[in-house]
Amino acid sequence: MSIPHSLHALKFPKPTTHPTQPSSSINSSSPYSPLPSFTQHSFQFNLPFLTMGNLHLLLIAAVAILAATAALPANAAVADIVTPAFFNGIKNQAPNSCAGKNFYTREAFLQAANAYPNFGNRGSLPGSKREIAAFFAHVTHETGSMCYVEEINRATYCDPSQYPCAPGKKYYGRGPLQLTWNYNYAVCGRANNFNGVGDPDVVARDPVLAWKTALWFWMTNVRPVLPQGFGATIRKINGIECNGGNAPAVRARVSYYNSYCQKFGIQPEANTSC
What we know:
10 helices; mainly alpha; globular; about 0% strand; Lysozyme; about 40% helix
């Protein structure tokens, strides 16, 4: 049995070292009434209907409106979107015998997300929800609904041209987005304080770190293309599926994305396929 393999089939770019001023006077010939006047010792309005009691009520109403407006969030906390019901709803699709059933937890994901505070923050609530829907659509596809922690086809995936590989180590897919290739492990390790080249297996031992590798890859390589639509994210994660390379895999990813958008009460944007 096998699952679609991603990130290993497509090499990603390797990191390199190297007004007119208003008038202050009132026109005496104006047909409009002058502004209400008040002095240091009085606060008298010339509008007969605006009593102090009415003014008090208007002020209360204005404060209530402003408070309600301020309470409308442009974004929501990731934890408010990735609820236990949503997260476990994905994981519950996997058989109980899967290694990922106990490895992937919402708590570990949220802890990892704290290290990437811009994740799920797109400036609007629908935009934030779309990003999270896209991320978990790929996680679902890559891991078989959080069943697999490590790729079944455990090839070496070593390209020593820039980052030498450690003896006996293999850089096959691990974690929620199946981080693959030695150069990805090397750079991701530097960003997340682990020895990616010398100990790639740690990604499959540490649940929080596993989520961090997925978020690192997402924020570094995938998030910049989100404005182009979900299809562009497929191309970044496993581009060989696009243009007819693996149409069923593309359809599966899009189906997950559409489903999660529906769960979040939003509409998918255009360009969902590749």
